[in-house]
Amino acid sequence: MTELTCICCPMGCRLTVDEDNDYAVTGNTCKRGAVYGRNELMNPTRVLTTTVAIDGASHGRMPVRTADAIPKGKLFEAIEELKKVHLTSPVHCGDVVLENLLGTGVDVIASRDL
Amino acid sequence: MYDVAIIGCGVIGSSIAYRLSKFNLKTVVLEKENDVAMGCTRANSAIIHAGYDPAEGTLMAKLNVRSVDLTKELCEKLDVPYAQIGSLVLAFSDEESEHVRRLYDRGVTNGVPGLRILSYDEAKAMEPNIADNVTCALYAPTAAVINPWEYALALAETAVTNGVELRLEAEVKSIAKTDAGFAITAGEDTIEAKYVINCAGAEADVIHDMVLPHAFEILPSKGAYYLLDKSEGTRTKHVVFQCPTKVGKGVLVSPTVHGNLIVGPNAADCAVGDTSAGADDLAFVRKMAVKSVPSIDFRQNIRNFAGVRPNSTNDDFIIHMQDGFCDVAGIKSPGLASAAGIAEYVEQMLTDNGVVLTEKASYTDTRTQPRFKEMSHEARAEIVKKDPKFGRVICRCETITEGEIIDSIRRPIVPRTVDAIKRRCCAGMGRCQGGFCGPRVVEILARELGVSRQDIDKDKTGSYIVRERED
Amino acid sequence: MYDLAVIGGGPAGLAAAYSAYEKGLRNIIILERDKELGGILNQCIHNGFGLHRFKEELSGPEYAHRYIEMVQDTSVEVKLDTMVIEITPDKKIFLDSPSGYECIEAKSIVLSMGCRERTRGAISIPGTRPSGVFTAGAAQRYLNMEGLMAGKRVVILGSGDIGLIMARRMTLEGAKVLACVEVMPYSGGLTRNIVQCLNDFDIPLYLSHTVTEIRGDKRLEGLTVMEVDENRRPIPGTEMEFDCDTLLLSVGLIPENELTRGAGIEMDPRTNGAYVFENMETSIEGVFACGNVVHVHDLVDFVSAESARAGEAAADYVLNGPVKGDYIRLVNGDAVGYTVPQKIHRDTVADKIDVFFRVRSVFGKSQIVISSGDTEIQVFKRPYMAPGEMEHIVISADKLKGFDTVTVSAKEA
Questions:
Q1: Residue B153 exposure: Cα atoms within 13 Å on the Cβ side
Q2: With contacts defined as CB-CB under 8 Å, which chain C residues touch A50?
């Protein structure tokens, strides 16, 4: 049995995951919690948020995020990959700024208009 | 070849430079830091004392009392915030009441006008938040509060406007006597001057010893303070002192000229340059302050700091000229309050020592500074119309506009750091302590000076704030 | 004359303006001091926003973007780069902007200025005054908006959410975060941020510890951290030295109410915000307040919900006139730090009253009790409560109507 805190939303539910019982999750208040509890032990993932360089905009940095969670172990590698991205204004909220990040199948998208 | 080299650009060096700038002299000021007012001047109680404290017959007594009116006049001419709010010395026992009476007598001898001894009831009526066990108080109506940086800067700026040369980051490393005067190695350069005036504050003994036989020592003593938000700024209306006791000089509680409340200092021996405010220092200040004013709300604290007093092995100021070298040393309290008189005294001393002072045909003796917050609605509308940069508030807490920051940057002594901007126009002095405006001031400074943001220091050279990314 | 002037174009102001418009007001202006709308959300690039409001997980700028688009589709006027200097009790607003210094008038006002961070001074950290000591939000702005790093070796004092978020952010950007130090025996931030920002990166969290000395003449050179006793006094002999160039402070937020005080509005010393009614009206009729300027929230979703109520109430005030009559006082009882609202109009039109508060200490299985004297009015059960997480309950208005003073308290179940 492993106790952990759900991070799917700010509620922070306290989950118990039973590895010996097919990773059954208790303590969750929504379905996302059950999925998270399972994944957190089997294949932990995180949404990555960071910034990339942008030219010709009112700010020099564009906030971006992965459209979905990526493997936790790839966070630092992803940051390095995103340092190579250089955008030019205009870019719109939701635009894909990098496709298929590190072969994860997850795109990186812009978080605002700039 | 300069006529006069002034070493140190605190309030004393600035005051002397200002005075000498009216004469046909080639004057240079050598300052080791990257701005003026970086030593003893930057952190003290900021009070123009009335003059009842120094012993009768001392230079301190004479020059303090002389300076009260001079300072007021200077502040008016040079647009330096000044508020004559008067001071109270509280007594809490018969013994202290006796001390208050002695201060009164001394003040009368020193020539301090308007002194009165107040009963508890009178004192409480004037200052309702003082403790109930006050026995009596000395009231000195001529005491005032100012901002020491703004005062020193206004003086130094005016001196520079009148042709005095200010060299920053020019630490004096050696002084050699020459036939014509002195050769001074300062920073990377060696300059020559006929006369040297030593205003080096906490390091005046080191400078003295470069030229003359050892005669005195500076014994730095630091004092820590609390600076409270303006919400506490009316906790007292006057400077509220305590009587000196066996355990210490007592701490004061006072509104500042900008409307905050200042509380402090303690006194602790320290090394030159040590301006750390220790936990014990702060605890002592708090404990002593509530003795005078029990209701101070320390949760409203916005800043702690410590300043250094350049106490010396002499009881009095050391102002003395020999072989063309003039010491202005050991200028401890009431040094700020005596600065104007000290400059006048030094001017006379130079004349007495054969320096010919002839007044320039014309010189600047006034100065103004825009202060958006203090303007009427109409004046604000007008200045924004003329310069839209006054329409952008950068420091929210103190309502300081981009126009005022740019005005500061374009003044005769160019500020290069975030704290130098604060000293000139008060941006970052408020309750958020630059949390919001800091990044914007860095941006404006970098833009106006044509440098990168990572080259902007907070305070002393080397106090960098941020680093640029590599990507 | 505007129907409504909204002071501040962050999440609170945007939601208030939008709701007022939806309720039928047309002559609305938002006054924003920055050059863009969105407020602090623009620098909060992390995700976790919007789950309640939009049922999906957004980053701060995305959440702001949604509301900015909603407001842009209305006729709400937006005046950027504009600082409100003064508000008078008769609803005159003096404002400064590069286009001019002027005075505008409004029938109603929503105060949504947000909050600011507590600083080193507020907690009197002893030591020298080098550069390298930042509030977490200032370092966040430098990094996320300006692309500048605050430092390389970092200690974080305070476990507030911004500090935790910055621990992860600086780590990802290559800094070494040595520790997060919290003076209380529990964290001030959301649990999920402890998990996601500290545990993920093996950053130690020292509870019941504080920074007792700052060293360095120019740039920060090092810190001493000590354990504290139950009175938060450092325990001699527990010193730990950290060799670092940066200290980030995440030691609390203070509602920014200088304009509110200037207008003479009654303030609650517990929240540092205005006393408000259930419709977010302040002590001045027609002046409403919402979001972090009233009390500091954990979640922007709740800021939006509260601000929507303020906007609707402002519209109601302009279109239908003020809510009159006396009110029920809501006070905080055992283990509760404050309540918002503090007053409820007895003749309120709302049938349900949203009440927000924070508990003073950590609770396991517990109860929130609404009572008046010996009368228990309503009880809410909670599996867990902590000061770092704001509590929200909904009370039926008709259950309160007979009482003058109602107390909200918390206890272990």
A1: 27
A2: 45, 172-173
Q: Which helix (H) or strand (E) segment is C5 a member of?
A: strand C2-7
Walk me through the domains of chain B, giving residue ranges and CATH numbers. Answer: 1-81+146-217+313-368 (3.50.50.60), 82-145+219-310 (3.30.9.10), 372-455 (1.10.10)
CB atoms within 10 A of CB C26: 13
Which residues of B are identified as catalytic?
49
Query: Which of B453, B454, B471 is the best substitution to test chain A (most A C-beta atoms within 10 A)?
Result: B471
* Token digits of residue B417: 């750091």
Spatial CB neighbours of B37, under 8 Å, sequence gap ≥ 6? B9, B10, B11, B14, B148, B149, B152, B153, B156, B423
Torsion of CA C4, C10, C11, C12, to 10 degrees: -40
Residue B468's closest chain A neighbor by CA? Answer: A60
Contacts of A84 in chain B (CB under 8 A): 471
ipTM for this model: 0.93
Spatial neighbors of B57 by CB under 8 A, at least 6 apart, are: none
Of C59, C172, C192, the CB nearest to A5: C192
Question: Do B46 and B264 form a contact (C-beta atoms < 8 A)?
Answer: no
Q: Is the peptide bond before C341 cis (omega within 30 degrees of 0)?
A: yes
What is the residue whose two structure tokens read 């730090």?
A: C337
A112 to C65: CB separation less than 8 angstroms, yes or no: yes
Given a contact as 3+ CB pairs under 8 Å, which chains touch B?
Answer: A, C
The 3-state DSSP class for residue A8 equals: coil
Q: pLDDT in tens for each of the 413 residues of chain C? A: 999 999 999 999 999 999 999 999 999 999 999 999 999 999 999 998 998 899 999 999 999 999 999 999 999 999 999 999 999 999 999 999 999 999 999 999 999 999 999 999 999 999 999 999 999 999 999 999 999 999 999 999 999 889 999 999 999 999 999 999 999 998 888 777 888 899 999 999 999 999 999 999 999 999 999 999 999 999 999 999 999 999 999 999 999 999 999 999 999 999 999 999 999 999 999 999 999 999 999 899 999 999 999 999 999 999 999 988 899 999 999 899 999 999 999 887 788 999 999 999 888 889 999 999 999 999 999 888 888 789 999 999 888 888 999 999 999 88
Q: How far is C59 from chain A (nearest CA, A)?
A: 7
Q: Region of B154 please: left (phi>0), alpha (psi -120 to 50) or beta.
A: alpha
* B71 Cβ contact partners less than 8 Å away, ≥ 6 residues apart: B48, B82, B144, B146, B151, B337, B339, B340
Strands B27-30, B2-7: pairing kind: parallel
**Residue B252 in contact with residue B327, Cβ under 8 Å?**
no
Burial C365-403 (b: 16+ CB within 10 A, else e): ebebbbbbeeeebbebebeebbbbbbbebebebeebeeb
